[in-house]
């Protein structure tokens, strides 16, 4: 859950929104295990000239879904994606990005509502066993509390590390009750209807630095986009995800998907 650059600390104060220095747009898999791209063929690595920066998901042969904060400070001409590989630094297929559109209501500046964007590839992907689109929910389709979900990514595997994992990682999470999610973040950040929480039930695990923009997958669909959280794998602070169902009409309007 981080812009396409290394972790940055942000402090925002306003009448209705307080974000602590540890609430970060960063994503990394903590407490996960190696993942096989054959089981997650929609997963891509979004890269700039320095390498992997964020995750994304294939929704069409020419379009990638990701988080809006992943595009901050990054000229489109510097972006490319790697698809079809377990690794972020080798194998698979490379495609350059020719266009990027963030939600018009996303402002950044420490306020992470409407954290969604789409990338237009210069050349379409060729689908196969390791490169396939992910299904999206219907507009306003609900997510049941305690629904099992999976998130994947190449983010760092400890909170202290700044080195991304070269091998794709995965963790299993469950969706949290919305009211509980709001209570956990009360005084730190507003949980809007376009966000929801997901986390581990017992083990220490989370998505964090470098996993931003990746898909939270549940019941055969992408229900969430890795967005932000208070630290990573912090007790009582689950990860916060953009609620894809709330943006279904926006995605359709921008991509036709």
Automatic annotation (TrEMBL):
Using the record, list the residue span of the signal peptide; answer none if the entry has no such feature.
1-23
Q: The Peptidase S1 domain covers which part of the protein?
A: 29-256
GO terms of molecular function: serine-type endopeptidase activity
* Biological processes per GO annotation: proteolysis
| Entry keyword Magnesium | no
Identify the Gene3D superfamilies for this entry.
Trypsin-like serine proteases (2.40.10.10)
Please give the InterPro entries that the UniProt record associates with this protein.
Peptidase_S1, Peptidase_S1_PA, Peptidase_S1_PA_chymotrypsin, Peptidase_S1A, Trypsin_dom, TRYPSIN_HIS, TRYPSIN_SER
For this protein, the record's Pfam families field holds: Trypsin (PF00089)
- What's in the keyword line of the UniProt record? Disulfide bond, Hydrolase, Protease, Serine protease, Signal, Zymogen
Which top-rank group of organisms is this from? Answer: Eukaryota
Which PANTHER family does the annotation name? AT26814P-RELATED, POLYSERASE-RELATED
Family assignment from sequence similarity: Belongs to the peptidase S1 family.
**What is the protein name given in its UniProt record?**
Peptidase S1 domain-containing protein
Tell me the organism. Zophobas morio
């Amino acid at each position: 859950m981080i812009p396409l650059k290394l972790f940055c600390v942000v402090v925002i104060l306003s009448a209705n929104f307080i974000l602590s220095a540890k609430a970060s747009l960063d994503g990394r898999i903590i407490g996960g295990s190696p993942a096989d791209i054959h089981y997650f063929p929609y997963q891509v690595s979004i890269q700039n000239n320095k390498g992997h920066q964020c995750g994304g998901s294939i929704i069409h042969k020419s379009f990638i879904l990701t988080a809006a904060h992943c595009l901050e400070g990054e000229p489109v001409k510097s972006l490319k994606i790697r698809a079809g590989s377990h690794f972020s630094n080798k194998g698979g297929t490379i495609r350059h990005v020719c266009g990027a559109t963030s939600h018009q209501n996303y402002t950044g500046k420490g306020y992470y509502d409407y954290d969604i964007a789409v990338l237009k590839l210069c050349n379409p992907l060729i689908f196969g066993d390791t490169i396939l689109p992910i299904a999206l929910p219907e507009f306003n389709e609900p997510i049941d509390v305690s629904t099992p979900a999976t998130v994947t990514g190449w983010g760092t595997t400890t909170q202290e590390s700044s080195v991304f994992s070269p091998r794709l990682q995965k963790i299993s999470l469950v969706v949290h009750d919305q009211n509980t999610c709001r209570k956990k973040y009360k005084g730190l950040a507003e949980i809007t209807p376009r966000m929801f929480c997901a986390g581990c039930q017992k083990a220490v695990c989370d998505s964090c630095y470098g996993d931003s923009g990746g898909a939270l997958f549940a019941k055969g669909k992408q229900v969430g986009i890795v967005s932000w959280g208070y630290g990573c794998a912090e007790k009582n602070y689950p990860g916060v995800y953009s609620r894809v169902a709330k943006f279904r009409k926006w995605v359709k309007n921008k991509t036709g998907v």
